[in-house]
Amino acid sequence: MSVVPMKDIVDRAFSDRYGVPAINVFNDLTLEAVLAGAVEARSPLIVQTSVKTVRSIGSGVFASLWRSLTEGIEVPVSLHLDHCPDRAVVTECLKQGWNSVLFDASALPVEENQRQTIEVVKEARLYGAHVEGEIEAITGVEDDHGSDQETARQSLEVSLRFIEATGVDVFAPSIGNAHGTYKATPVLDFDRVTDIVERHPIPIALHGGSGLTSEQFSDLIARGCAKVNISTSLKETFMKSSLTFLTEAQKNDKWDPPSLFAHTRADIVHLVVNLAGQFGSANKAW
């Protein structure tokens, strides 16, 4: 197996009711480590990039890294552009080979969001790519995108009209989840996922996955959350692992960058293997 369309991954997960880790990476080390974790777990994987990461690394450089690191990979993987309100960046990433995009026009009125999402879906199809859509901003700021102000949720009928009119492949509803670190266990609207899926069977993207309980994950995945976004947990693992190693390096006055990278990589691989086991995607590679 190798790089596959995002829809191939989420449709299988949705049908069999397991969740696929969709993990935001931000450099070559994190990209290589999450791929290695997926291989170790025998799990499908969706690798995500924020707009900030695309701009800081460059879409061409990242695409080259992606092609190099996924050549001959033994599990199905897909590359996704997360939360992008900028149509120019959507086009740039599609041209560079991203397999799917989340066109995030949640700051716009639903009608305008829907109109533009229809255009993005049409554009993505030209590249054999898929689209995730949303009509409500997920609370929280991540990689300079978003707001800490919770937005009003749209009705079920509005959500269904958007899904049917746009033809998006994945839908991301707001259910009380949030980006970043939860200060307390969130109160989630589980029934909202069920209501959407019962009326229009579509894989649901769960945003703000870092910090949810095992019980919340299991419940939401069973209801149809086939794509489970993880960003904060990876960032915390990367930085805390590096800090632990560097603290010891300072104490011993021993400075060895390759050993730092190996230490941090091992912790990230461990994180991915655990997530795959928790979400039920371990040993689901084909």
From TrEMBL:
Catalytic residues, chain numbering: 82
GO biological process: carbohydrate metabolic process
Cofactor: Zn(2+)
Residues reported in the UniProt entry to bind Zn(2+) 1: 83, 179, 207
GO MF entries: aldehyde-lyase activity; zinc ion binding
DNA damage recorded as keyword: no
Cofactor note: Binds 2 Zn(2+) ions per subunit. One is catalytic and the other provides a structural contribution.
Annotated keywords: Metal-binding, Zinc
Chain positions recorded as Zn(2+) 2 binding sites: 104, 134
Residues that hold dihydroxyacetone phosphate according to the record: 180, 208-210, 229-232
One Pfam family, short name: F_bP_aldolase
InterPro entries listed in its UniProt record: Aldolase_TIM, Class_II_FBP_aldolase, FBA_II
Name listed for the protein in its UniProt record: Class II fructose-bisphosphate aldolase
Lineage of origin: Bacteria, Bacillati, Actinomycetota, Actinomycetes, Micrococcales
